[in-house]
Each structure stands twice: as structure tokens, then as C-alpha cells.
Amino acid sequence: MNNNLMNVGVLFSELDIKERTKIIAQQINKDYGTNETLVVLIVLHGALIFGADLVRNLEMPTEIETIRIKSYEGTASTGKINLVTPLPTSLAGKHVLIVEDIVDTGRSIHFLLNELAKSEAISLKVCSLLDKPEAHEFPVKADYVGFTISKNFVIGYGLDLNGKYRNLPYIANLTKA
């Protein structure tokens, strides 16, 4: 990373994330039990790493699906949701857990929940690694949240800036230098 372009401050270490992911998985295991199949719908690309780590800690049978939406350019939301891949068609009669990297304005989750409401799933819940309540513009609330953060732009552990920095093992606050 070119330090002339930006400064980062670690918000959550790799260990913090690993421990919190296990706690979230324990709650999901408790809520769903070990008999029901859970469809884990991972929102690409940001939630890929978190989703993979979360699924490894789940005890029930799981099906993994992915969806790709786009709403950001650089550090700002475009205000529009673009569905890059189609929604899975096999969700009827199943429990679905949407795994998101961050609930920022809430626009993406609001959009997905409205679209998935047509799927005839038994249940729809949201698990988000990060939540920015002060940035919410839509009345959405994740059922499971890793960490609550302020209205800053963050990178790492799947979160990016123009496709870069997803590979950082921690979550960092991004400030322009």
C-alpha cells in the first residue's frame, strides 16, 4: 500500500474478527439448530471472506449461494443498486441468511430483502460483519452484527477501495493523506 496516498488505522485485528465471527456463528447455530438446512447467500465481493469464515463455524447443513450487486464507486455510494448476477432461484421453502460485509446506508440490504421477499423462502435474515447505524437511510437492521462502526470508510477483510485491499487480514479506517 502506498502510504503517500492514504493512512490506515486498524479498527479490528485479525484475532478480533476471528473471535467475533465464532460468537456470531454460535448464535446462528443456537437460532437454527443442527437439523434445518440454511442457505447462506453471500453478497460478493465484500462478504466473501467473512462468509467463508462464518460458514466454517456453522453446525447445520448449509447450501452456499452468491449474489453480486454494485452500489459504490470509489468511497461513495452511487445511490443506485445494480444487480450484477441473478438472484438464486432455489430458495422457496428454505431458510436464507444473507451475509453482507457492511450495512452502510442500508440501500443494498433493503433492495435485496425486497427482491428476496418474492422467493417464498421460509425465513430471511441478515448477518453483517459491520454496521454503520448513523449512515442508515433505509429502515433496515441486521439480525446478526459483527461490529458497529462510525461513519468512516473502511477497508480490509473483504472491504475494498476500487477493488483493492480486500486481502488485508484486518479492518482499517481509511483516511486520505
Automatic annotation (TrEMBL):
Entry keywords, A to Z: Cytoplasm, Glycosyltransferase, Magnesium, Metal-binding, Nucleotide-binding, Purine salvage, Transferase
Enzyme class, UniProt record, top EC level: transferase
UniProt GO molecular function: guanine phosphoribosyltransferase activity; hypoxanthine phosphoribosyltransferase activity; magnesium ion binding; nucleotide binding
Pathway: Purine metabolism; IMP biosynthesis via salvage pathway; IMP from hypoxanthine: step 1/1
CDD domains to which the protein is assigned, alphabetical: PRTases_typeI
One term under GO cellular component: cytosol
Protein location: Cytoplasm
Protein name as annotated: Hypoxanthine phosphoribosyltransferase
